């Protein structure tokens, strides 16, 4: 059985790596803040002192980090994973980053005889915890087949999209739809509230209608509660929409709804909500509309 390395133990990385441990894999982990690794260590993972050590000790190295600059650091830095990896090993990045940043890592990996599988995920922290994520993958097909059994321990829906950066673009396509859906729900909910309809009832009606989706379903309680604990923060969604808009420019595709939603998220961040869940767009629109919940 391959020895697995995992770099990045945030809200998504911690439950995903824990699921690999629970499935019986030998897993070695690293995170910038070691205290965040404790739940995974308690589940049976071992600790490494650097990404380079992960690369040296493991056959397959997974990364799940916040953004492209962080990926470049943990993969390509002097103490990064590739510095410790050798010919025949596999690097799997599950972060949401730009195609350009991904291609930079792929080129560096190829120079060392390491295959990069791009495998961003779709789904919430709850889905990460119960191993029900969707995994979008691209890269060498034979290498993908080698890591597929590990993906199946983290997600129930697997999609192989091609040999290049297709997975990166598809993830951005999904996130621009998710963000725009929350902007539309904010507008619908606040209009309903101002007409005298109770917030939770409005959310439940939306979730159960033709306009509903899994997203509107599991955001209903968050919006109705009005606290907006971050399953996916405003700050991270802004980052993803910036990547989507850049991809639109690269491929010559106008993204007007995405641009408008990005501005709404900027407004949320500017009013102290950058760390709130991005569904806080409803709260922002309530304020802009002069509405206070009873």
Model description:
The protein folds into 2 domains: 161 residues, NAD(P)-binding Rossmann-like Domain (Rossmann fold, 3-Layer(aba) Sandwich), CATH 3.40.50.720; 121 residues, Orthogonal Bundle (N-(1-d-carboxylethyl)-l-norvaline Dehydrogenase, domain 2). The chain has 14 helices and 9 strands. The protein has a 6-stranded parallel β-sheet, with helices on both faces. Strands 7-8-9 form a 3-stranded mixed β-sheet. Strand 5, helix 6 and strand 6 form a beta-alpha-beta unit. The termini are far apart.
CATH architecture of the largest domain: 3-Layer(aba) Sandwich
Shape: elongated
Which range does the strand content fall in?
5-15%
Q: What structural class is derived from the secondary structure elements?
A: alpha/beta
**SS element count, helices:** 14
Helix content: 40-55%
The string of secondary-structure elements, in order, is: EHEHEHEHHEHEEHEHEHHHHHH
Give the tally of β-strands: 9
- The radius of gyration computed from the alpha-carbon positions, rounded to a whole number of angstroms, is 20 Å
- Estimate nothing, just give the exact number of structural domains: 2
> What is CATH's topology name of the largest domain?
Rossmann fold
What distance lies between the first and last C-alpha atoms, to the nearest angstrom? 58 Å
Strand order across the largest sheet = 3-2-1-4-5-6
Low-confidence stretches: none
Q: Would you identify the CATH H-level superfamily of the largest domain?
A: NAD(P)-binding Rossmann-like Domain
CATH class of the largest domain: Alpha Beta
Largest sheet: 6 strands, parallel
**Mean pLDDT rating:** 97
């Amino acid at each position: 059985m391959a020895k697995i390395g995992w770099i990045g133990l945030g809200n998504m990385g911690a439950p995903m790596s824990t699921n690999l441990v629970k499935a019986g894999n030998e897993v070695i982990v690293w995170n910038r803040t070691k205290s965040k690794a404790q739940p995974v260590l308690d589940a049976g993972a071992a600790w490494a002192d650097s990404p380079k050590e992960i690369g040296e000790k493991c056959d397959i190295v997974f990364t799940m980090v916040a953004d492209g600059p962080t990926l470049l650091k943990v993969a390509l830095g002097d103490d990064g994973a590739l510095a410790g990896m050798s010919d025949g090993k596999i690097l799997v990045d599950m972060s949401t980053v730009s195609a350009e940043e991904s291609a930079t890592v792929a080129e560096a990996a190829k120079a060392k005889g390491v295959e990069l599988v791009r495998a961003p995920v779709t789904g919430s922290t709850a889905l990460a915890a119960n191993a029900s994520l969707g995994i979008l993958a691209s890269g060498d097909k034979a290498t993908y087949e080698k890591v597929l059994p590990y993906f199946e321990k983290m997600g129930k829906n697997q999609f192989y999209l091609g040999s290049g950066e297709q997975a990166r673009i598809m993830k951005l396509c999904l996130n621009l739809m998710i963000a725009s859906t929350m902007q539309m729900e904010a507008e619908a909910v606040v209009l309903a509230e101002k007409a005298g309809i109770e917030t939770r009832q409005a959310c439940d009606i939306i979730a159960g209608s033709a306009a509903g989706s899994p997203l509107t379903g599991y955001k209903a309680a968050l919006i109705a509660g009005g606290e907006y604990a971050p399953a996916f923060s405003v700050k991270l969604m802004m980052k993803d929409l910036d990547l989507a808009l850049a991809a639109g420019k690269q491929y010559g595709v106008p993204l007007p709804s995405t641009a408008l939603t990005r501005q709404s998220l900027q407004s949320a961040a500017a009013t102290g909500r950058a760390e709130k869940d991005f569904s806080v767009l409803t709260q922002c629109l309530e304020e802009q509309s002069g509405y206070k919940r009873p």
